[in-house]
Design brief:
Layout: H1 2-30, E1 33-38, E2 43-49, E3 57-58, H2 61-72, H3 76-80, E4 85-90, E5 100-103, E6 106-109, H4 110-118, H5 122-130, H6 142-161, H7 164-171, E7 175-178, H8 182-185, H9 192-199, H10 205-213
Parallel strand pairs: 1-4
Antiparallel strand pairs: 1-2, 2-3, 4-7, 5-6
Length: 216
Amino acid sequence: MILIIAFLITSIFGFFTYQDAVELKNNLESQPKLMLLQNNEKIVAGFVATDSEEEAEFLTISQVAEYQNSFKKQDYKKMLGDNYKMFIIEIKAFDLVDEELYFNGKKTSKSFLYTLLKSNDPISLYKSETGIDPALNGNSDPMEFKANIFAVLFSEAIDKRGTFFIFGEYKKKNIIVYPETIVFKFMGLIPTSFVKNMFENAKNSTINKINQTIKG
C-alpha cells in the first residue's frame, strides 16, 4: 500500500511538473520576458524580449537604475511589471571560454565583451580598442550598447544549450527566476538529465528576433 501511494504521488507530481514545463516552454516563446544581467549584485544591462513578431526592447540608463533600486529591495513583483517572467542572470552563467563572437559587425573575443560590460564608458573603450565608432551602427547610448552585448551572449547560450541553459544555470544559482512555478521550485529534485532531454531541442523563437534586433 505504501509503495502504491508513493507511486501515485510520484506520478501526480511528475505529471504536473511536466505540464508546467511544457507550458513554460510555450510561454517563453510567445510572452514578454524581462531579461536582466547582474554582476556582483548590480544590474548591468537588460532587455525585454517579446514574441517573434516584435523587436526586443533594450533598457535605458534610467530604467536600469530603477530596476537596480527595486533589486536591492528584492521587490521582484515591481520589477516584473506586465511581463510573463523575469530572469536575472549572473554574468558568470555565460561560458567564459575566450572564443570569438560577432558583435557590431566584426568578430570580438568574449573576454573583451565582458570588459565592456564592466566598463563605465563601454562605447569609448570599444572605439579606442577597435577603431570602430559604435554610433555609426546606431549605438550611442552606453546602456543600450551593453544590452546589445548581453543579447549576443544570451543568444549564443540559447543557441548552444537551448532552454536548458536557463534550467541548468538556475540549478547552479546563477539565475533568479520570478515568478517561480513548480518546475523551478522543485528543480533541485528533478534530475538534470530529465530536464535536458525535455528541452535540448527547444529553441526559443524569440532568439531569432533578438539576433535580428542586435545592431550591427
